[in-house]
Each structure stands twice: as structure tokens, then as C-alpha cells.
Amino acid sequence: MINSNELNVYSNKVYDYFKKNNSKLLENISLQPSEFGKNHIFIELITKNENSASNLVLSSEDNELTIGFDCYHCHFDKFPEQDFEEEMKIALEYFYKILSEELFVVSAGGGASTLLTKEEISIIESGQILENFNYDCITYYVTSWSGNHDRIFNKPN
Q1: What is the mean pLDDT of residues 68-92?
Q2: Rounded Cα distance, 144 and 62, in Å
Q3: Is the pLDDT of residue 109 over 80?
Q4: Which of 16, 22, 40, 121 is deepest in the core (most CB within 10 A)?
């Protein structure tokens, strides 16, 4: 159990949400010093994929929730007008879909990366246009949680 007095205000909010809605995730929790006083939540799951640039992480630093894997990261609950509960649900959906290999990191060079499903990757590989995917490059790199689905493919002509 974490002592809530050790956490900054935002991290306490995230911690309370996890306790109520996703307590299993707390088995991997650690605390890291925060720039916003006290500590923030940091969860890191170690991947066996040697091709991955990083493990799967979840952090409540900077008064936002960040999910990251390989060269991809995304911020949730960054703006006050966003619904906290909805942002937490979406963030955890991404987190668990990376773990279950329903979502894969696709890097399009130059630091640009996104999460895509197998079906969406197949569309790009076939040379078709994928709506809302505007990375136009020659080579794409796919990274999966296990490494079993990693591959590199070139954009079809």
C-alpha cells in the first residue's frame, strides 16, 4: 500500500482511480520524485522484446497520465476540460491492448510513431491509404510487446 501523503495531488487522484478500478496494476507501482512536489506514480512492465527501445510504462508525472512503449508515448488528462474518468479508461485500454498485442507501435521514421492494429498495418502494407495515418515514408518499423510480431516493411510503390 502506498501512503497517500507521499504522492502529489494529481498522483493521488490517479492512485485512487487505480485502487477502485484496476487494483491489479498497483502490484507494479513505484514512486518517483516529482517536479510538482512529493512523488508521482511510475509503473514499468519489463518486455522480453529485445528490439524495443523501452519497456511499457505508465506515469503520472507532469499532472497528466503518460503511457509509453518502445518509441511511442501518449499523454492523457492533460487539459482541465477533459473528463478524468474517461481519460483513465482510454489510457488503460491502450496499456492493456499493447500487452495483449492488439495494438502495435508503428514507427515511420524521424521519431514519428503511433499505435495501430494488425488490420490497420495490413492496409498500409498493401499500399492502401489508412485514414488518419499521414506518415509518408519509405520504411515502417513494427514493434510488438512480445517481439513475435516485429517486422520492417517498405511502403509499396
Answers
A1: 91
A2: 27
A3: no
A4: 40
pLDDT of residue 105: 96
Of the chain, the percentage scoring pLDDT greater than 70 comes to 97
Q: DSSP per residue over 103-118, as a string?
A: SEEEE-STT-EEEE-H
Q: What is the spatial order of strands in the sheet that 139-143 belongs to?
A: 113-116, 104-107, 139-143, 151-154
Spatial separation of the C-alpha atoms in residues 131 and 118, rounded to whole Å:
15
Phi first, then psi: give them for residue 58, nearest 5 degrees.
-135, 130
Q: What confidence tens digit (pLDDT) does each residue in 15-60 have? A: 999 999 998 988 999 999 988 778 999 999 999 999 999 999 999 9
Burial class (CB in 10 A: 0-12, 13-18, 19+), 2: middle
The predicted pLDDT at position 110 comes to 66
CA distance 103 to 122: 13
b/e burial code for range 76-110 (CB count within 10 A of at least 16 → b): bbeeeeeeeeebbebbbebbeebeeeebbbbbbee
